[in-house]
Amino acid sequence: MNLLVTAGPTREPIDPVRFLSNRSTGKMGFAVAQAAAEAGWAVTLVAGPVALPTPPGVRRVDVTTALEMLAAVERELPACDVFVSAAAVADWRPEASSPVKLKKAAMGGTLRLVPNPDILKTVRPLKGARRFVGFAAETGEPTAEAARKLREKGLDLIVANDVTAPGAGFAVETNRVTFLFPDGRREALPLLSKREVAQKLIERLPCL
Ligand code: PMT
């Protein structure tokens, strides 16, 4: 069985020295890749710019921007049975990216942005019998918003995390998540290592 997972942030260049991004370190997505490989899955990991070693046995594709991540997912998706979207994809990118460093005086006070595609929604028509798992980064109780994303993105499972809760979300080694299923079932897990969260996620995949 083949698992495709995205991890980390995307980075949206303004010029060769400046970019827009977010606080994702890739730890959660890399833990999913590692747990899947340890459970015997053939794993392809599409990684944004992160400082993490590739888990043993995992095939890694490095990308920088959301558009590059989308292109990699479109290329890798046909070969996968399960797609786990753990990346924190930048929702917006600068309208133009300068090939040379912008002078401070030339920048003005306004940065014009255009929306990035939603990767999960874009590849939805290719889903077929594949299982799609998303993550929901919320600030506050991760329930109604996560349930909306589960529905709107046509997912088989969404892993909601409150990224403002102590020990959860970005950069830390632990996470506190709730699994939400399309039939309305919810499973709230205690604070666990990201490795344990990933193992529990992989255990649930055959039941989706
Ligand atoms: O990397 P770490 O430091 O370990 O942090 C882990 C994490 C907080 C990044 C991770 O647990 C997490 O929550 N990942 C999803 C972050 C996110 O983008 O959430 P969202 O609620 O904005 O997006 C919902 C889903 O849509 C996600 O599966 C996301 O990958 C996907 N998405 C979002 C935007 C976009 N343009 N395309 C997408 O496919």
Explain how this protein is built:
This protein has about 210 residues and is α/β, with parallel strands linked by helices. The chain has one domain: CoaB-like (Rossmann fold). It has helices spanning about 25-40, 65-75, 105, 120-125, 145-150, 195-205, and strands at about 1-5, 10-15, 20, 40-45, 60, 80-85, 90-95, 115, 130-140, 155-160, 175, 175-180, 185-190, 190-195. An 8-stranded mixed sheet has the order 5-4-1-6-9-10-12-13, with helices on both faces. Strands 2-3 form a two-stranded antiparallel ribbon. A two-stranded antiparallel sheet has the order 7-8. The two termini are about 15 Å apart. The mean pLDDT is about 95. It binds ligand PMT. The site of ligand PMT has 27 residues, from α1, α4 and β9. Ligand PMT binds next to α1, α4 and β9.
Structural class: alpha/beta
Radius of gyration: 17 Å
At the fourth CATH level, what is the homologous superfamily?
CoaB-like
Report the sheet-strand fraction. 25-35%
Question: SSE layout and pairings?
Answer:
Blueprint: E1 2-7, E2 12-15, E3 18-20, H1 27-38, E4 42-47, E5 58-62, H2 66-76, E6 82-85, E7 92-94, H3 104-107, E8 113-115, H4 119-123, E9 131-138, H5 144-152, E10 157-162, E11 174-175, E12 177-180, E13 186-188, E14 192-193, H6 194-204
Ligand PMT binds at residues 8, 24-28, 66, 85-89, 91, 116, 118-120, 134-137, 149, 161, 163, 169-171.
